[in-house]
Amino acid sequence: MNPSADVIVIGGGHNGLVAACYLAKAGRKVLVLEASETFGGMVSTNPVIGAAPNHRINEGGMDNTLLRETNIVHDLSLESFGYGEIEIDPAYAFLQPDGSSLCIWKDPQKTADEIRRFSQKDARAYIDFANDIDLMMNLSVPYMKSHPIRVNIWEMFLGILKLLRHPRRAIGLSRFVSASHAEYIEESFEHPIVRGPLAAIVPFLPIQQEMTAWMLIQFGFIHRKGVSRIRTGSGGLTDALGKCLLASGGSIRTGAKVEQILVENQRAAGVKLVGGEELRAPVTVAACNIYNTLQQLLPAGALTDRELAQARRIPNAASNASSYKLDIALDARASLAKHQAWRKNDIDLRKCGLCWATYEQHIKAWDACARGEIPDPLPVFVLIPSANDPSQAPEGQDTIWCWSGIATATPTQPWEEIKASVTKGVILDIKQYIDNVETAEIGRRVMSPDDLATRFHVPKGNVYHVDTGMSRFGPFRPAPAFANYTTSVKGLFLSGGSMHPSAGIAGIPGRIAAQTVLRLS
Ligand SMILES: Cc1cc2nc3c(=O)[nH]c(=O)nc-3n(C[C@H](O)[C@H](O)[C@H](O)COP(=O)(O)OP(=O)(O)OC[C@H]3O[C@@H](n4cnc5c(N)ncnc54)[C@H](O)[C@@H]3O)c2cc1C
């Protein structure tokens, strides 16, 4: 049978597209298969609110940090396909009910100057923290960008040299590896307005769990290269990747859900789509979720016993926390009157990532998830994407993007029964800060973990695909048997947020998958 392509990529999220672009540019004939009617996966911008067809909604990720550390945009000439970024500085503002706020700027000194209004001690501690994190970045970033096993020795060596220049501080970095996120915050900072954003900006793992303080490395990304959002919405990235792929001779089929990876003589031979159509190729890159790949798409007996045992134990929302998403289309600009007045217009708060759940509320929220209860309040993170990029809403109007990463994955009462009341609580919470959130609403879309699971074909709606703990980093992500981006099935390669270094807007798993294909096939 004639092959349909040299390489089939399962999943048209940004990682699948990055892999496809690198492979197509290397001369391979690539076909991307995407289950949904639109491609882009969790990096998509679409008019999904029926009552507001001119408000473009960012369905998944928004804040862009890790991609900025890579050469992917340059390698794929994405700017020539319409890609652009908007710098956000200050990237975040932590709001307090009395109207006061703390902004997190790219410049740690500017952040410390704001902290000084509230605590001299914390301002000094913040500079130490930022310096320590920056030191840790010297080693972590080169490793995150490299293959987890075939490490870029030279870059790592340079990172170690930079660490050795500050031996005393380097020893102190062990706290980022050993301490819990909560422990690190408590031992370093005293004021609630400082503890709050340090908890809220990185709600990826249970705050009291051992070995979670490393998540604060996100502040290293903020302070080193800053945070950006993608022009025309996050979908601007996947649109540019799609155009790059087409220009390099590749193609994308949407509404093409893979049901099975065909395996013949222990080799991947192509895929079977839902509906029965078979497409053949000597190489398949699975850039969809790893659980689906290993436990549903591969036929029984394809993996070794060792692989299967590890596949079954890959953690997915082990803390019982997943994501909740609320998007609202407004017929006016979002108003933060009280908080804007406190800042005396030194910055437009609409342009920052907004959070307000306190450090203590984060502790309670993670505990509630573990008990199967919905946290009250649900800690949320709110952006107003149209404030930075007015092209995403009609003139003078806004979109509100609201995400919680501490929403109970499997609550004692099914989400379908509680979604409306949870959303009512979230909107009341937002109203304390964005006063016209109810009165200016045109329409909304609410996504529980179940809805996210359906929309993105990802079990439990887990936006990280695989839990992000230290035990699933580097050669352990998603499990040692798969860390090489391969399985024992020849011609099958793995990619997507399930792989090293992590999920998030990064593209690194896509690039490493393509490099692995080019090296081994
Ligand atoms: C609400 C939300 C907020 C987020 N916020 C941020 C943020 O601010 N910053 C950040 O960096 N990250 C954020 N993330 C996470 C980030 O967006 C994702 O981790 C990342 O985009 C995953 O990319 P991916 O390409 O690996 O996978 P995905 O985007 O999940 O793409 C996988 C694709 O595979 C398709 N697929 C699955 N199964 C099949 C099949 N059988 N056949 C064919 N196709 C299939 C899916 O439909 C999907 O399109 C957020 C995510 C969400 C949902």
Features:
globular; 3 domains; seven-stranded mixed beta sheet; five-stranded parallel beta sheet; alpha/beta; FAD/NAD(P)-binding domain
List the helices and strands and how they pair.
Layout: E1 7-10, H1 14-25, E2 30-33, E3 45-46, E4 57-58, H2 72-75, E5 85-88, E6 92-95, E7 101-104, H3 108-116, H4 120-145, H5 153-164, H6 167-172, H7 174-178, H8 181-188, H9 192-200, H10 217-224, E8 227-230, H11 235-247, E9 251-253, E10 258-264, E11 267-273, E12 278-280, E13 283-286, H12 290-297, H13 305-312, E14 321-330, H14 337-343, E15 353-355, H15 359-371, E16 381-383, H16 385-388, E17 399-408, H17 415-431, E18 441-447, H18 449-456, E19 492-494, H19 508-520
Bound molecules: flavin-adenine dinucleotide (FAD).
What does this 3D model show about the protein?
With 521 residues, the protein is of the alpha/beta class. The chain has three domains: 7-44 and 233-315 and 464-520, 3-Layer(bba) Sandwich (FAD/NAD(P)-binding domain), CATH 3.50.50; 108-224, no CATH class; 317-459. It is built from 19 helices and 19 strands. The chain has helices spanning 14-25, 72-75, 108-116, 120-145, 153-164, 167-172, 174-178, 181-188, 192-200, 217-224, 235-247, 290-297, 305-312, 337-343, 359-371, 385-388, 415-431, 449-456, 508-520, and strands at residues 7-10, 30-33, 45-46, 57-58, 85-88, 92-95, 101-104, 227-230, 251-253, 258-264, 267-273, 278-280, 283-286, 321-330, 353-355, 381-383, 399-408, 441-447, 492-494. The protein has a seven-stranded mixed sheet, with helices on both faces. A five-stranded parallel sheet has the order 9-2-1-13-19, covered by helices on one side. A three-stranded antiparallel sheet has the order 10-11-12, with helices on one face. Helix 4 (120-145) runs antiparallel to helix 5 (153-164) and helix 4 packs across helix 10 (217-224). The chain is globular. It starts with 6 loop residues before the first strand and ends with a helix. The model has no long low-confidence stretch (mean pLDDT 97). The protein binds flavin-adenine dinucleotide. Flavin-adenine dinucleotide binds at residues 10-16, 33-36, 41-43, 60-63, 257-258, 287-289, 292, 323, 325, 403, 452, 456-458, 463-464, 496-497, 503-505.
